[in-house]
Amino acid sequence: MSFSAENASYGTLIWRRFRRHRLGFLGFLFTIFIYLVAAFTEFLAPHSQSTYKARDVYAPPQSLRFFVQDRSGQEIFQLHVLGYRSKVDYDSGKRTFVEDPRKIIPLGFWVRGDKYDLWGLVEFDRHLFGPIKKSDRVYFFGADRLGRDVLSRTIHATRVSMTIGLVGVALSLILGIMIGGISGFFGGFIDLGIQRMIEILQSIPSIPLWIGLAAAIPPTAPPIQTYFLITIILSIIGWTGLARVVRGRFMALKDEDFIKAARLDGNRPMRIIFKYMLPNFLSHIIAVVTLAIPGMIIAETSLSFLGIGLRQPVVSWGVLLQEAQNLKSISTAPWLFLPGFAVVLAVLSLNFLGDGLRDAGDPYET
Fold first, then answer.
1. In principle, which of 99, 232, 247, 354 could form an S-S bond with 184, CB 3.0–4.6 Å?
2. The architecture CATH gives domain 12-16+27-37+154-360
3. DSSP tag of 287
């Protein structure tokens, strides 16, 4: 049975056009993957975010190997990494690491490891992938200055960095739709006052404004409180662009015949806005919101990198990149920059997804 665009629903047309947008669909798949990682961080990470081993400070990344020799000299398949043999140069105080072929650390799936509370509900100790022996440690992304696994901390940081974008954009969405909708629907002096307020906020440089507001958070504030305060700060700044978009679409729609008919039928303004006007450009709002999440992620990462955003013991990508701020870290452990690739992957995926949704928002456009 052939597909007929005339009989298809609006949602079906958008989905079919979106699937033909290769980069957009690829970004969609990567975005799902990243949020699945955020949902199952404890299970996917080989170790806990706070597990450390003092002897492995700044240990370099280990390579995954597939075959080992048995006693007869034959090679058999066994996922493993080689352990380290370390020594300290007492003149410079620097510890060097060399792979030791005699120290084989076997790896497996569904292994026992550090205990954790899955979503705060169930105590669990199984991990998707990691060392078979619970006492062993592996460092696919190397170790930091305290001997903690950078890969495990990067996976744990995914939850904070990705959810702060969702929460921040949700607050910005509420503010943008309410304020922009009121401005575009009523017009006149209300529209004039709201637009001047938006222009004042947009004229202030973003980074100094972020720094000024974030610096007001007490250093002794609890991590959860800091998390929500940073989210609110980003939302206060991020709603203006969406409000302008909503206001423009409302001004174009309010003179349409079906809106006039809704007014003559006695519908209240809020009912007209939410029942008749918003659904007409809902796909466009979804695209704008999707494109706004990367901005939130970059903003949080920037604030945390500068030391005025999230702080230890909260782990985010920006907090992890603080480790790579000095020259000693760059020369001693360049792998501390690897969490930055997670930022790049998340931002590109969400931008491609937003571009795809924006292009698919009008399925009747050729």
1. 247
2. Orthogonal Bundle (1.10)
3. H
